[in-house]
Amino acid sequence: MNTAPLPEGDWIRGITIRQPWTAAILAGHKTIENRPRPGWVLLHAGGQIDRRALRDPLVAHAVRGRELMTGAVLGIARIAALHQDPDDAAPCTPWSIPAAWHLELADVQELALPVPATGQLGPWRPAPDLLERVLDQLPNFRP
User: Fold this and answer.
1) Is the alpha carbon torsion for 80, 124, 49, 136 positive or negative?
2) pTM (2 decimals)?
3) What is the pLDDT of residues 110-126, one digit of tens each?
4) Mapping DSSP to helix (H, G, I), strand (E, B) and coil, where does residue 115 land?
5) How far apart are CA 77 and CA 127, in angstroms?
6) Strands (E), the chain
7) Are strands 39-49 and 12-19 parallel, antiparallel or unpaired?
8) What is the pLDDT of residues 63-80, one digit of tens each?
9) Is 67 in a helix, a strand, or coil?
């Protein structure tokens, strides 16, 4: 077990993502998220499911057999880099939206148990007790 202390202060945010997009990230298929701010983030599945997205073959393949939990933190990831595809270039991944800024997700770790939480639009600060319940499931995690 890693006994190194976790950082103090403002080092992590939560981001709320509608399902099935959260499941596609946790399954390791979707490695780009179209939002700003590098650093560690809690992956919170919002309260709604994007039903239209489930008809997309790319999404359907990525989330096949996965339960689409909502209203909970389901994992953690590190935003490793930020880029925008050049106008004349092909998209960096099938998940990228042209002209959007793309967050490159790395070190994605799915939680064994969802942690119920209320998210919000935009990056948000997790309450200390929420962060503690998430990190209890990741005893060897150190940013």
Assistant:
1) positive
2) 0.82
3) 999 999 999 887 788 99
4) strand
5) 17
6) 12-19, 32-33, 39-49, 72-84, 101-116
7) parallel
8) 999 999 999 999 999 988
9) coil
